[in-house]
Design brief:
alpha+beta, about 190 residues, tt1808, chain A, two-stranded antiparallel ribbon
């Protein structure tokens, strides 16, 4: 079945994005006012993301929570990170301001490699999101962590952790994540 996207003249807005069907197998984002449509995530992507959410739940400070996907307002761009860490007290909203996001996380899919590795981190950094993690799922799970330094609008790489290793960072919080705990099918 082919889903039709409503015809639109001019730039797309967040309200236009909200009007698209929720039950779609596609993911919708707006980049510089243009609608970008990508396939929904594969099972491995979702499992790794959910395992990471569980790991973060155990190690994050009590005043923050991991949610997602959730729209982040980078006007005129609206991105949908796989996971974000925000304060529990964040206002009830349909989109987050970059200042609300402590950490944005993308789990890389075969259809989003360039976007997750290059485009999104550049956008997140330019809008002041303090930290970014890029989670690779193939051939093995790994995490590359980045943080903003004062006075710059590009991320500094903190390191990459893979099988048999434990991610240890102090930005945006003191966190430890055992990478093997994110591998589907591991005991």
């Amino acid at each position: 079945m082919v889903e039709l996207i409503p015809e639109k003249v001019g730039s797309w807005t967040f309200d236009d994005l909200q009007a698209l069907p929720d039950e779609s197998a596609w993911r919708y984002e707006i980049v510089d006012g243009a609608l970008v449509v990508s396939p929904g995530p594969a099972l491995r992507h979702e499992v790794v993301g959910e395992l990471l959410r569980g790991c973060l739940r155990r190690v994050l400070p009590a005043h923050v929570i991991t949610i997602g996907p959730m729209a982040v307002d980078l006007e005129p761009t609206y991105r949908l990170p796989d996971l974000v860490v925000v304060d529990l007290e964040t206002d009830d909203t349909t989109k987050l301001a970059p200042v609300d996001v402590h950490l944005a996380i993308e789990v890389v899919s075969s259809s989003s490699r360039t976007t997750d590795r290059v485009t999104k981190p550049a956008e997140y950094a330019a809008h002041g999101i303090a930290a970014y993690w890029c989670v690779e799922t193939t051939p093995h799970v790994s995490i590359t962590a980045y943080a903003l330094r004062d006075g710059v609008d590009v991320y500094t790489e903190l390191g990459t952790w893979g099988a048999g290793e434990t991610l240890v960072v102090s930005e945006p919080f003191d966190l430890e994540v055992v990478v093997d705990d994110l591998t589907p099918g591991r005991p």
